[in-house]
């Protein structure tokens, strides 16, 4: 079995090969749920730290979520569940063969790698702030590509570039849904007021 460090590096540089290895591990569903809870909670802590270190003003939605950490964590878990559901159902709609457990493993692993990137961003905020902005942009580009590669491997699709189009479209729909939910729960949105 691969070492963690090699698998993380492969996830960054060759995500489709990493996806094959992550999916081959066959972690149980209960353990994946625990890992999902762990990455969500750690992600909230890192987001709180990053926001406290960032010099700029926060948008109202971020302020609302960070002021209510349990609500934020619950919301993040719901987003994670929506992403897993989207990966499974959209993929199957287009002839994919991925499972819920495989989709959850994919999302949890990519979230774990994103936590490492987020920790690197926090270090950059403290040590070399201009690099933090570059890392943020690179992380967004990487996560879209990595998600396309992982979903391709999960469902047996051949062309990750086509899947990337679906990932981008699905992300747009998800972000719109998040904005609606935040509005319904009373979170102020940017530009509102």
Q: How many helices?
A: 8
Contiguous low-pLDDT stretches (5 residues minimum) are none
Task: Give helix and strand order, one letter per element, not per position.
Answer: HHHHHHHH
Structural shape: globular
Q: How many domains, in number, for the residues?
A: 1
Q: How many strands appear in the DSSP assignment?
A: 0
Radius of gyration (Å): 17 Å
- Classify the secondary structure makeup into a structural class: mainly alpha
Mean pLDDT figure: 87
Distance between the termini: 54 Å
Strand content: under 5%
Helix fraction by DSSP (H/I, runs of at least 4): over 70%
Biggest sheet architecture: none
Folded structure, characterized:
This protein is mainly alpha-helical. It has one domain (4-184). Helices cover 82% and strands 0% of the residues. Helix 6 (100-127) runs antiparallel to helix 7. The radius of gyration is 17 Å and the shape is globular. The N and C termini lie far apart (54 Å). The mean pLDDT is 87.
Fold topology:
Blueprint (H helix, E strand, L loop, with lengths): L3 H10 L1 H10 L4 H25 L6 H8 L1 H25 L6 H28 L1 H27 L4 H25 L9
Helix pairs in contact: 1-2, 2-7, 3-5, 3-6, 5-6, 6-7, 7-8
